[in-house]
From TrEMBL:
Gene3D superfamilies: 3.30.465.10, 3.40.462.20, Uridine Diphospho-n-acetylenolpyruvylglucosamine Reductase, domain 2 (3.30.43.10)
UniProt entry tagged with the keyword rRNA-binding: no
Name this protein carries in UniProt: FAD-binding PCMH-type domain-containing protein
One term of GO molecular function: oxidoreductase activity
Length: 479
């Protein structure tokens, strides 16, 4: 490999070849600083170059170039992972953020989204045709990372995971070849990318099944004092039996500024009229929330409601676990105490959250675990922690605390940690919330072995190596 400036001058020339206008930003380029920004400051790394991709052909050329020059690379979709897997110090970034076109086919009810789209792009465009698919609950997250790792949203109760609604992808493989993966074309690759996609190539477009989505919907936040935990937990326990897939509640703890006092937040969703929603959530309204921000809203605004609580400043870390209902209010109170004690002991951590994502999972577990790579299908809900802080000296301490809190919440809530049972019941870890400190077996369970063999088939040199640890493993034929 030549010196960095020389080698990237060559890449610029190669990209010009096909009439492409892809830009190659190096540290001295205008816009470079903006291009390495990520949702979490602790994932910002000073890449040698950032290639602002405009087409699948740009991806193909950049991959071939990186391979020929032995330059490590990462792929950036929406830039939200807190594992750092879309940023790099010693190589180049294949940045898809300029590929954000969404095309809807109203006859076929399909939604085609380019590889760098964010959920806002999809929600807004699909709504013009009265359609929606299962998108993330914060609309500035990337379609790319969220889909390739599984994807949960408010519509999961009705339609399952994002990948359960994925019809096909166009993907550039490590070889530079552009292929289609679907149930009819390269079905083994399609199996792998639905849960472990970051390991297999650069997806330049996703085609989703759209569903008719009536407007408006009932949604918004309620804020309670911690003394209301018994009422909230009692409601969540009841919700497990009373929901019919058209409702979701995301609830948990935070201590938001300016007061920085601990509160219980509850995000409500009801896919239907206000009168029905008010009746369904009556116990919560009767519990006299401190703040009520619920109302009827257009569906395409739904995934923007949490944007204010998930802004781009500061260092952040996502973590995942699982919980079962019914929960015991005293146990939830003890988690709140642990959380509050830690957050209050450190400066400017009040926007951190522990969330019980009570999104109905009946549709999720209807799909067998071996149907695709994703293995977090079980009789439990996801737990998510999002810690936010500003002082880099706290990075390690927060990572450890988050792990401990999630472990306590997951184990005591009854999710079985025994490996054999996990394989039957689901792994209890959502890969998109983990931080590369978990093994392939932990995230993919009994699908891990097949994934490693497919990795050997599609990326034998492990060029896509920066996400969850999945290493190529040749198939051993025993005679
Ligand atoms: C505020 C917030 C809210 C969230 N809410 C939800 C939620 O409601 N539901 C849910 O399921 N998850 C949620 N998540 C988790 C989310 O799924 C992950 O953070 C996901 O990695 C984000 O994808 P991204 O494209 O924005 O991230 P990136 O950091 O850009 O990418 C993540 C990984 O995917 C790879 N990647 C991205 N795009 C492509 C592509 N086109 N081709 C190949 N590889 C690609 C990257 O290389 C990287 O390894 C949330 C995260 C945050 C920060």
């Amino acid at each position: 490999m030549g010196s960095a400036p020389d080698v990237y001058a060559t890449l610029r020339e190669e990209l010009k070849g096909g009439g492409s206008v892809a830009e190659v930003l190096t540290p001295d380029s205008a816009g470079y600083g903006e291009s390495i920004k990520r949702w979490s400051e602790h994932c910002e790394k000073r890449a040698q170059a950032v290639v602002l991709i405009k087409s699948a052909s740009d991806v193909s050329k950049t991959l071939k170039f990186a391979r020929a020059n032995k330059i490590p690379f990462v792929v950036r979709g929406g830039g939200h992972s807190t594992s750092g897997s879309s940023a790099i110090d010693d190589g180049l970034v294949i940045d898809l953020s300029k590929m954000r076109k969404v095309t809807v086919d109203p006859e076929a009810k399909t939604i085609k989204a380019e590889g760098g789209t964010i959920w806002e792009d999809v929600d807004v465009e699909a709504a013009k045709y009265g359609l929606a698919t299962v998108g993330g609950t914060v609309n500035h997250t990337g379609v790319g990372g969220l889909t390739l790792g599984g994807g949960y949203g408010y519509l999961t109760g009705k339609y399952g995971l994002t990948i359960d609604n994925l019809l096909s992808v166009e993907i550039v493989l490590a070889s530079g070849e552009l292929v289609t993966a679907s149930s009819a074309s390269n079905p083994d690759l399609f199996w792998a990318i639905r849960g472990a996609g970051q390991n297999f190539g650069v997806v330049t477009s996703f085609t989703f099944q759209g569903h008719p989505q009536p407007n408006p919907v009932f949604a918004g936040t309620l804020v309670f004092p911690p003394t209301k935990i018994p009422e909230i937990v009692t409601f969540a326990n009841k919700f497990h039996a009373t929901n019919d897939g058209n409702q979701a509640i995301l609830w948990g703890f935070s201590a938001p500024p300016p007061a920085n006092a601990p509160v219980v937040l509850m995000q409500l969703f009801y896919n239907g009229p206000e009168s029905d929603a008010k009746e369904f959530f009556a116990d919560l309204f009767n519990a006299e929330p401190l703040v009520d921000m619920t109302s009827m809203i257009p569906y395409e605004k739904l995934n923007s409601l949490l944007n204010h609580a998930t802004g781009f400043d500061g260092r952040k870390q996502f973590g995942g676990g699982a919980f079962k209902l019914p929960l015991n209010p005293a146990f939830v109170q003890s988690l709140l105490s642990d959380f509050t004690e830690f957050v209050e002991r450190h400066e400017r951590m009040g926007e951190s959250m522990l969330l019980f994502e009570t999104v109905p999972y009946k549709k999720v577990v209807e799909v067998p675990s071996g149907e695709m790579a994703f293995a977090n299908r079980g009789d439990y809900y996801n737990l998510a922690s999002m810690f936010k802080w500003f002082d880099p000296a706290l990075d390690g301490e927060i990572r450890e605390f988050s792990k401990g809190l999630l472990k306590k919440a997951s184990q005591t809530a009854g999710v079985v940690q025994d490996e054999k049972i996990r394989e039957i019941e689901g792994v209890g870890v959502y890969g998109n919330y983990s931080n590369n400190d978990v093994s392939a077996k932990e995230v993919y369970g009994s699908n891990a072995r097949k994934l490693e063999e497919l990795k050997h088939k599609y990326d034998p040199d492990n060029l896509f190596s920066r996400g969850l640890r999945l290493v190529p493993r040749p198939i051993v034929v025993v005679n």
